[in-house]
Amino acid sequence: MPRGFGHGGPWWHTRFRGAGFRITVPRQAILEVLSKTQKHLSAEDVYMAVHRICPTVGLTTVYRTLELLVDMGLVFKFDFGDGRARYELALGPKGERHHHHLVCTNCGRVIDYTEFIDDEIELLQQTEKGLSKKYNFDITHHLIQFYGLCDKCKGR
Amino acid sequence: MPRGFGHGGPWWHTRFRGAGFRITVPRQAILEVLSKTQKHLSAEDVYMAVHRICPTVGLTTVYRTLELLVDMGLVFKFDFGDGRARYELALGPKGERHHHHLVCTNCGRVIDYTEFIDDEIELLQQTEKGLSKKYNFDITHHLIQFYGLCDKCKGR
DNA sequence: ATATCTGCAAAGACTTTGCATGAGA
DNA sequence: TCTCATGCAAAGTCTTTGCAGATAT
């Protein structure tokens, strides 16, 4: 059965019920928005998209829900240096969405890349193993970003 | 001659003069503070430390100077997810301070590690090369962070 | 029934900006 | 001298919190 839908509704319902969290309209709308994009959305972005599905949902709820999802490990939170956090679905460390980022320090453009991920992942898993042991950490995820000037900004 | 001091004063004076920036008391104090620690300082941390050297320097100047140093590539700016930016001296991509981070998502503790850097650097340089070519980016630096629970937080 | 969740408004925290004064080259 | 830098105060932005009413289980 493909990831996504089972008998009891969307896949994440189980995670929610198991943790004692309630399945509500705002939460469903927020997860729907996150599932339907490949972009890195800010809280405001999510809020505006959710607003089209369910106009009564407030920005506060968006923030609270995103925090909850991050804590549950369902969503990753990123910082690209422009002062607002970005969010995207996690879907597992080797899941179909996993990628790293290339960030332009001038215009803020962010490119997702997956080209070199396989080699990176291999090395990272070794590193994770070594680090976990040495520092007694439970490592849950990682972040790799390259910074520089994009093609449009480098000739300036 | 060791990096650090030449005839005309500290090493960064040349960089400043060359770029048309002035060498001022606040800037010297801020760079002195950054050179004398291995920690990741917030703007407020820098401000307080600078205040002991030169009490007239304001927080605004600290922010402005840190931004300048980041733009010049002399300082890196990090985000560990606690809402305030951290700064530390760059000293070159293979310089003596280069390291990656291990961040506890529960208590916010940050550990610098250098153990696996050599293998990582090698892979990263290949990746950088590939990315630069494919996306036509001038890559200046990278960020690698592992997230998880530290030994104190995992038993909770 | 009741503990959780939500929306609104207000507060909080970090960072940036305007402007007149002061200082480096 | 003359442009650049600084400090203060105020404003700006993103994010969090308090609380009463609404909702899921």
Structural class estimated from helices and strands of chain A: alpha+beta
First-last Cα distance of chain A: 51 Å
Q: Specify Rg of chain A, calculated over alpha carbons.
A: 17 Å
Spell out the CATH superfamily of the largest domain in chain A: Winged helix-like DNA-binding domain superfamily/Winged helix DNA-binding domain
Q: List the secondary-structure elements of chain A in sequence, H or E.
A: EEHHEHHEEEEHEH
Summary keywords:
6 helices, 43% helix, homodimer, 2 domains, alpha+beta, DNA-binding, 156 residues, Dna Ligase, domain 1, Arc Repressor Mutant, subunit A
Short description:
The first copy, chain A, is α+β, with helices and mostly antiparallel strands and 156 residues long.
Topology readout:
The structure is a homodimer of 156-residue chains.
Chain A: E1 5-6, E2 9-10, H1 12-19, H2 25-35, E3 41-42, H3 43-53, H4 59-72, E4 75-79, E5 85-89, E6 100-104, E7 110-113, H5 117-135, E8 138-149, H6 151-154
Helix pairs in contact in A: 2-3, 3-4
Chain B binds a DNA duplex (25 and 25 nucleotides) through residues 17, 20-27, 42-44, 56-61, 63-65, 67, 83-85.
